[in-house]
Structure formats: structure tokens, C-alpha cells
Amino acid sequence: MYLTRDLERATAARRLTSAPAPRALPADLYRDGDHYVLALEMPGVDPGTIDVDVDGRLLTVSARRTALTGDGVEWIARERGTGDLRRRFTLGRSIDTEQISADYRDGVLSVVIPVAETAKPRKVAVVGAPAAPAGADAASGDAGETVATETAAE
């Protein structure tokens, strides 16, 4: 009896003081080898409403969360926002936008953002001039001098 009354008071007070939660999608971003992973929390979102768009260097994630409705449903507290959710991210120039992929599991959208091949670390081959024959004069204009001169001129 008292428990019911106390519960009623607590929920009535909560209804008056609860502010609506912002319609944000909390995100984590990390690099794993040659790609980034963007993980967005999206609990309660209908997977069919999730949309991931890339327009130039702008990545946009949007979805829709609908509230539970029905006969006998009375909200006591409602902190998760409903409606359209959207988040935008600016991608760097070193991203391969053609290979971006996404997967939705357990209320988390994981967007895999690969690093472009041109931005990956790589070895640069060093090409040298052929060895000068024994006794060749440096002033004779051999290939070694030409390479050195071109390099110095740059």
C-alpha cells in the first residue's frame, strides 16, 4: 500500500522534471590497421530506417526511432529520444570513400572507413646510377654525374 503510493509520487515527480534527451547518436571512432571504425549507439532504431550516405567528404548517418504505443501503454519515464536521428562527419582526404561499409548489430552501427591506398605508409625504392667503371673520370660526364646534377638542380 505505501509502496504503491511512494511509487506514484516518485513517478509523478519524474514526469514533471524529466527533460527530453537530445536526439544525438553517441559515437566512438578508432583506427584499426588500415581502416577506421565509427561505432554509433542506436538502440531501439528500426534497422530498415538506417541510412548511411557519403557525399564528397561528408558522411551522414540517419535513422528513425519510434516510440512504443498501444492500448494500456503509459510512459513513466522516457529519456531516449524518438523521431529522426542524424549525425554528420567530415572525412579526411586520405579516406577511400568508395569502400566504406556498415553493419548494424545489437543496437550499434559500425561504419568501416578504409584508408586510401595512396595514404598508407609504403617503402620508396631507391634507384641508383650504375656503378662507374674503374678509372672513370668524374668530369667525363658519366651517368652518375648526370643523376647527381639533376638531383642537385631540383
TrEMBL record:
Give the family this protein belongs to, as stated in its UniProt record. Answer: Belongs to the small heat shock protein (HSP20) family.
Give the protein name, as stated in the record. Hsp20/alpha crystallin family protein
- At the top level of its lineage, which domain of life is listed? Bacteria
Q: Which CDD domains match?
A: ACD_sHsps-like
Stretches the record annotates as Disordered = 131-154
Q: Which residues form the SHSP domain?
A: 18-130
Q: Matching PANTHER family, A to Z?
A: HEAT-SHOCK PROTEIN 20 FAMILY MEMBER
Per the UniProt record, the source organism is Schumannella soli
What InterPro entries does this protein's entry cite?
Answer: A-crystallin/Hsp20_dom, HSP20-like_chaperone, Small_HSP
